[in-house]
Amino acid sequence: MNTILKYISLFIFILLSLPALAQPDDLPSEEIEVVKEFEAILEESEKLAVNPALPPVDSTSRKLVYDIPSKTLSLDYPPPKIRPIAMKGDAVTEAFKGYTKLGYGIPNSPYGELAYNHSDGDKLSVGGHIKHHSANYKKLEHQRFAETFGKLDGTYFFDQGFAVDANLNYTNDEVHFYGYDHTAESFEREPIRQIFKTFEFGTRFYNGERTNGDINYSAAFDFYRQTDNFAAGENNFDIELGATKWFKSKHPLNIKLITDFTIYEDTIKQELSNFYLQPNFTYHGEGFKIKLGANLTSNNDILRVFPDVEASYSIVGNKLGAFVGWNGDLQKNTMRSLSDYNPFIATYSRLELRNTAYNNFYGGVRGTLQVVDYEATAGLKKADNLALFLNDNQEDSKRFFTLYDTVDIFYIKGSVKAKPISGLEVILTVGQNIYTTTVQAKAWHLPSIEANASVRYTTLNDKLLLKGELFVENGVPFIDELGTVDNLNGLIDLSLGAEYRFSKNFGVFVDANNLASNNRQRWYRYPTYGLNILGGITARF
């Protein structure tokens, strides 16, 4: 407190001295002696006591009303993307552009095959394939054949969304009419050699990408010219227009228009022209499928309407399903189709072109049981003008001619495919036909029972392939030179084969066919080859 008073006294002294400092310089000077320091003493002040108090509490209740306008907020919320958990994928098999197979076997059987395909990105794909196989069984005069095949094809995808396919094929099939008594007759090669030369060209225009309206469209043109070694020739060309409209990506509505023309020329000229209109719709439901359609055909101004219907139902998931259907069609019997089935056909005036009209009623079951896929079908096929085959004993018994009959065919067929362990595949098919002819006594040269079993096993990291096949067929009915009806012997053909790849590019193979050396006659007077073996090398590049 004393310190504060000292400072206050000093401040007052300075203030009192200011007037003196402001006086003129000529004022007399005097000395002042301070006897005692000034001490200012303040009296104690009286403090006022203030006690603050809270205002009284307002206990009245109030109801507040808020008027908040509603407003919908638009949020741009993209759906979440569900990403699958990464899984280890299978190893991608290395692709090769080219493949070749060269070999030789007995009896006197050279074999050669070459295939190559080139793809230029997503726009162009071109390829070629050539093959030759021949054999000469010198123990039986002129029991020999030769097959030569060549093919070029390509596909181009345009930026506008459509694509074009084109193919060019040539086939040279050589057989010999060795069906005679070799103990009593002998022939030079040229008079009994038959060569079918077939030239083919085809092109197709279609949508290469999915269209906005889910409509697939296509337009195709195919032509072939076939000639033989005896001045017979056949031309065929057909045009096919088709479209498919998909509903909900699973219900297809199809429509197809086909014009099919065939002209055959030998000593006489024959024409066989068919027209087809084929609409159908398939509905896929939960566990069932229904197809409704028709096949409208026209030949020589005769209109036929065949149904095209099928219904299937899943009884126990994919383990057991049942199906039933009814369809029909016109099947052409031409020089080409008949010679493909029976290469010893006679291509002269007795070759008659006709349509086989059939109605097919069928039903069956199919499914998958763990590692086994199976299917069993039974049906009745009513065929009008079914082609049958007999030796032409009138002109040349070494050749066959066709005759036609109305035949009901009751059939049963089944197939089983199993993969019990990794690398092993087993396939079994069996079928039986029961023919009821109208005019002919038998269904000449048509088999009634056929069974085929095949086994393939791949091991040693896909380097070794082992395979086996068993083919069984009953003897077919025929008429001999004396007019006697009889049946040929049946066939049991067991074949084994193996292929070993000692590098990714090169391998070796061997095939042993007809190990039982069965010389059964599929066609009367024409025994098949006995045991025959073929081996060689393969290469991929």
Description of the structure:
By secondary structure, this protein is mainly β. About 4% of the residues have low confidence. The strands form 3 sheets. It has a 22-stranded antiparallel β-barrel. The protein has a two-stranded antiparallel ribbon with strand order 20-21. Strands 24-25 form a two-stranded antiparallel sheet. It is built from 3 helices and 26 strands. The radius of gyration is 49 Å and the shape is globular.
Rg calc: 49 Å
- CATH uppermost class of the largest domain: Mainly Beta
Following the backbone from N to C, one meets helices and strands in this order, namely HEEEEEHEEEEEEEEHEEEEEEEEEEEEE
Strand content bin? over 45%
CATH architecture of the largest domain: Beta Barrel
Shape: globular
In terms of quaternary structure, what is this?
single chain
Write the layout of secondary structure elements.
Elements: H1 2-22, E1 98-106, E2 109-120, E3 124-137, E4 143-157, E5 162-176, H2 189-192, E6 193-207, E7 215-227, E8 233-247, E9 251-265, E10 269-285, E11 288-299, E12 302-316, E13 320-333, H3 335-341, E14 354-369, E15 372-392, E16 396-418, E17 424-437, E18 449-459, E19 464-473, E20 477-479, E21 485-487, E22 491-500, E23 506-513, E24 521-523, E25 526-527, E26 532-540
Antiparallel strand pairs: 1-2, 1-26, 2-3, 3-4, 4-5, 5-6, 6-7, 7-8, 8-9, 9-10, 10-11, 11-12, 12-13, 13-14, 14-15, 15-16, 16-17, 17-18, 18-19, 19-22, 20-21, 22-23, 23-26, 24-25
